[in-house]
């Protein structure tokens, strides 16, 4: 059983069977709910109702503790449910004296406050624990302070570098690793370094180092096995004026000392970067719209390019076998669900006006929602199967708003990985066909034929792995030039045909094997002739699709499947003509 947790003006937890239907009893906290969180394993639940912070046991529905923290706006459990961290905005007194500590750490078992700190910034407010809670770390005055075994009265180690701006602990068991970011100043570059706890001293203590310019801030992403870090370096302002979103670069740093700049083939912002749970590949969504999405391996070589499309986010399933590319926010909510192993498109659902997305821990269901304050109208959520079926839909009443929603977490391994299916699962809800918006046409053109001119050049998906018989795949530039050359060649042949006089027969263009087969004579058997005629029609249609693909047009999934059947159709036609 999974649960979906919803904040309206009160906290409500809904049981999710199939479909999600009933509301669990005893989970209301008043009308001023501001924040909630689950523990990592989903057994504990904490929320704030504007007066108290309450800790609830999900299993037996018992209230464990209540703390008088009316101003708390952030909550977080430690990985093994030992500590609950709470944070409220820092305030000073009117006479300018220092304020009271605003970061509290509570023992979940006893309810006592273990330690209070002053934490002025809300960004990265929460201490970071290792998964086994042996160590815990905080960034204090440009240093990283380490505590052991949740004893916060003694600092056991310090990582001191000049002006440490951010750090991230590695996931998983020992040995513990930490990535730290130091911004550049006075012409010096910024850098990210990887260390292994507690080896911080000495000129060769760092496991790896990567320096770079053009970075106001960074986002550091460890893979699940803690062998490498991806660093998204961002500049708030693009000095060249090319992008409103500033400028971003993507860097790769491994614990074995290797580092690289990830070369992205399209200019523009980096919208999202995510690791696969297998830790051997990652997906980046980047470039001016329509954006590109590409999977890279640990050598930072492209493995598969999903082409271009209206997307700005990527989400791997918990098991890593399915990838969703989505366009949320200022985009229409189009989603592409891909089978990562075979690089096949599973479905293309549309979740309009969505501001939130989350995979269910079972790796089969998806949650999308429209939440306040991003959008204050049409709030609600939907639960999908990855094949595109909507299994449940909930619309918030017009006098209420949806502020937060999430799946109940579960530990890894609870849900087994299942075989991917391509056929949409049945649903009791009627299918919702998205309304296609037609482009505006001025009055003078409304009675004229619609041309197929496009504002942006579309790029189809392509496998970047070396194919049998090829040393390496063609680069993006080479593929683009090849398509342009083929398009020009086809245009010249068409122009030559149009200019030729009626008396003179035009020089025929070179024919493919399919075209040659189509032009051959048929047999004398009427039944066989009928089959031959139908096969020739299919082959001619395939040839037209191949010509469209050569000019750069992006084909649909069913069209690509037709092209793959060409060899079998040719063999069948040959057998019919030979009378086999």
3D architecture notes:
- With 580 residues, the chain is α+β, with helices and mostly antiparallel strands.
- The protein contains five helices and 36 strands.
- The strands form nine sheets. Strands 23-24-25-26-36 form a five-stranded antiparallel beta sheet, with no helix packed on it.
- α3 (526-550) packs across α4 and α3 runs antiparallel to α5 (566-577).
- The longest helix is centred in the last third of the chain and has 25 residues, at 526-550.
- The two termini are 58 Å apart.
What would the keywords be for this entry?
globular, 580 residues, 13% helix, single chain, alpha+beta, 5 helices, 4-stranded antiparallel sheet
- Total helix count? 5
Q: Gap between N and C termini, in Å?
A: 58 Å
- What topology, given as strand order, has the largest sheet? 23-24-25-26-36
Roughly what percent helix? Answer: 10-25%
Main sheet? Answer: 5 strands, antiparallel
Shape from CA axes?
A: globular
The total count of strands amounts to 36
What structural class results from the helix and strand content? alpha+beta
| Rg over C-alpha atoms, rounded to the nearest angstrom | 29 Å
Indicate the mean pLDDT.
81
Strand content: 25-35%
- Uncertain segments of ≥5 residues (pLDDT<50)? 15-26, 501-521
């Amino acid at each position: 059983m999974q649960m979906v947790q919803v904040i309206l003006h009160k906290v409500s937890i809904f049981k999710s069977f199939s479909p999600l239907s009933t509301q669990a009893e005893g989970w209301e906290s008043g009308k001023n709910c501001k924040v909630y969180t689950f523990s990592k394993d989903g057994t504990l639940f904490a929320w704030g109702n504007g007066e108290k912070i309450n800790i609830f046991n999900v299993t037996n529905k018992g209230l464990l503790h209540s703390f008088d923290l009316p101003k708390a706006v952030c909550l977080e459990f430690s990985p093994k449910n030992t500590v609950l961290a709470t944070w409220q905005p820092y305030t000073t007194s009117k006479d300018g004296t220092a304020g009271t500590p605003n970061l509290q750490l509570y023992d979940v078992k006893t309810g006592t406050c273990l330690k209070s700190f002053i934490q002025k910034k809300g960004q990265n407010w929460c201490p970071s624990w290792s998964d086994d809670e042996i160590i815990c770390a905080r960034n204090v005055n440009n240093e990283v302070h380490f505590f052991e075994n949740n004893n916060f009265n003694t600092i056991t180690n310090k990582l001191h570098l000049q002006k440490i701006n951010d750090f991230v602990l590695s996931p998983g068991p020992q040995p513990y690793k930490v990535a730290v970011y130091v911004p550049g100043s006075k012409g010096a570059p910024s850098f990210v370094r990887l260390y292994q706890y507690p080896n911080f001293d000495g000129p060769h203590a760092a496991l790896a180092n990567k320096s770079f310019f053009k970075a106001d801030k960074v986002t550091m992403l460890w893979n699940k096995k803690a062998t490498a870090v991806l660093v998204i370096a961002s500049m708030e302002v693009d000095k060249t004026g090319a992008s409103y979103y500033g400028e971003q670069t993507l860097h790769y740093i491994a614990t074995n000392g290797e580092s690289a700049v990830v070369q992205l083939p399209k200019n523009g912002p980096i919208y999202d970067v995510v690791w696969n749970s297998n830790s051997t590949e990652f997906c980046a969504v980047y470039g001016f719209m329509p954006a590109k999405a590409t999977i890279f391996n640990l050598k930072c070589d492209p493995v598969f390019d999903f082409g271009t499309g209206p997307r700005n986010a990527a989400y791997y399933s918990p098991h890593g076998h399915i990838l969703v590319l989505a366009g949320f926010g200022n985009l229409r909510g189009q989603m592409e669900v891909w089978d990562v192993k075979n690089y096949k498109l599973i479905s293309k659902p549309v979740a309009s006006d969505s501001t939130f997305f989350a995979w269910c821990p079972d790796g089969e269901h998806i949650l999308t929602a429209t939440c306040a304050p991003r959008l204050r109208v049409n709030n609600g959520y939907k639960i999908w199967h990855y094949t595109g079926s909507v299994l449940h839909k909930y619309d918030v009443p017009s006098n209420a708003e949806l502020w937060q929603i999430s799946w109940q977490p579960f530990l890894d391994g609870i849900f087994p990985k299942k075989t991917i299916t391509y056929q949409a699962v049945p649903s009791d809800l009627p299918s919702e066909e998205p309304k296609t918006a037609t482009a505006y046409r001025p009055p003078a053109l409304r009675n004229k034929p619609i041309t197929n001119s496009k504002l942006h050049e579309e790029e189809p998906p392509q496998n970047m792995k070396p194919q049998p018989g090829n040393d390496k795949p063609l680069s993006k530039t080479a593929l683009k030039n090849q398509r342009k050359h083929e398009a020009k060649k086809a245009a010249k042949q068409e122009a030559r045909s149009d200019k030729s006089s009626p008396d003179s027969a035009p020089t025929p263009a070179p024919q493919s094997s399919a075209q040659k087969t189509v032009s051959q004579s048929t047999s004398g058997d009427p039944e066989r002739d009928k089959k031959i005629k139908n096969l020739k029609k299919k082959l001619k249609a395939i040839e037209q699709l191949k010509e469209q693909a050569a000019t750069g047009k992006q084909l649909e999934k069913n069209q690509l499947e037709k092209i793959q059947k060409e060899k079998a159709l040719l063999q069948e036609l040959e057998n019919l003509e030979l009378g086999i």
